[in-house]
Write a structure and sequence with these properties.
Layout (H helix, E strand, L loop, with lengths): L23 H12 L14 H11 L11 E5 L3 H20 L3 H9 L10 E7 L17 H19 L3 E5 L4 H8 L6 E9 L9 H4 L16
Antiparallel strand pairs: 1-2, 2-4, 3-4
Helix pairs in contact: 2-5, 3-6
The structure holds flavin mononucleotide.
The site of flavin mononucleotide (FMN) has 11 residues, from β3.
Amino acid sequence: MADKAGDLFRFPEAPSSPPPEFDSAFRRHFLELLVWRRDVRRFRSDPVSDELVRELISMARLAPSVGLSEPWRFVRIGSPARRAAVRENFLACNADALSSYSGDRAEQYAHLKLEGLDTAPVHLAVFVDPDPDQGHGLGRKTMPETVAYSAAMAIYTLWLAARTHRVGVGWVSILTPKDIVRALDVPENWRFIAYLCVGYPAEESPSPALSRAGWEQRSEPAGFLIER
Ligand SMILES: Cc1cc2nc3c(=O)[nH]c(=O)nc-3n(C[C@H](O)[C@H](O)[C@H](O)COP(=O)(O)O)c2cc1C
C-alpha cells in the first residue's frame, strides 16, 4: 500500500506490541539508505508537498535530545527577499573561503558546487533555543553545546527520512550565523545550526560529490577507533 504522508507518523508513544523485528533484509536496506543518502546541491524543479515537509519535520522530532529538551527550531523560508539575503551571504562567505586557498586547491575550490540555494524548492533553516525551559537543564550544565548536538541529530533524522521519499537534503554552512538570524528575523539568542536545501535530487550517487570531485576521500574505518 502506498504511504500516505502522515500515516507513518502516528506517534509511537503508544507502540503496538510486540516491538518490531529488524531482520537482516531490513538491515541491508538500512545500509543502502545510509550509503545512498548524499548531500545534494543540484535539485530538480518539482515541488515537495507541504504535507511531506511537515511529515519530515515531525519525524525529525523522534531524534534524541539532551534532557528531552527538543531545542530545535525549524524555519521554513518562502520569502524571495529572505532567500536572496541568504544567497547574498553565501556568496560573500564563499568568496572569502575561496581567498583562503591558493594554487591548485583554490582552483579546485572555485569549481565546487557547495549549495543548491537557486534550485531547491524548500529552504529550511535550523536553529536551537540555547536555553529552553523544556528538559529543565538536564545534561546541559557542564555541556551547554549539547543543545546543538541535539539539533544535528534531528537534522540527520530528517535527512534519512527524506531520502526514503527520494527527497534530497543539502546542508549549507558557508554562512554567517548572525546575518542569518537577522535575515530570518528570529530571536537574537537563537543559535544558527544549519541551512537545509530540500528537494528531489537531479543526480544520484553512492559516493560523496566531494570525493567524486577529488577534494577529499573517505578514510579507512580502522583509523577512527582508538582503544584504551
Ligand atoms: C555540519 C555540516 C556542514 C556542511 N556544510 C556544507 C556546505 O556548506 N556546503 C556543502 O556543499 N556541503 C556541506 N556539507 C555536506 C558535506 O560536504 C558532505 O556531507 C560530505 O562531503 C560527505 O558527502 P555526503 O553527505 O554526500 O556523504 C556539510 C555537512 C555537514 C555535516
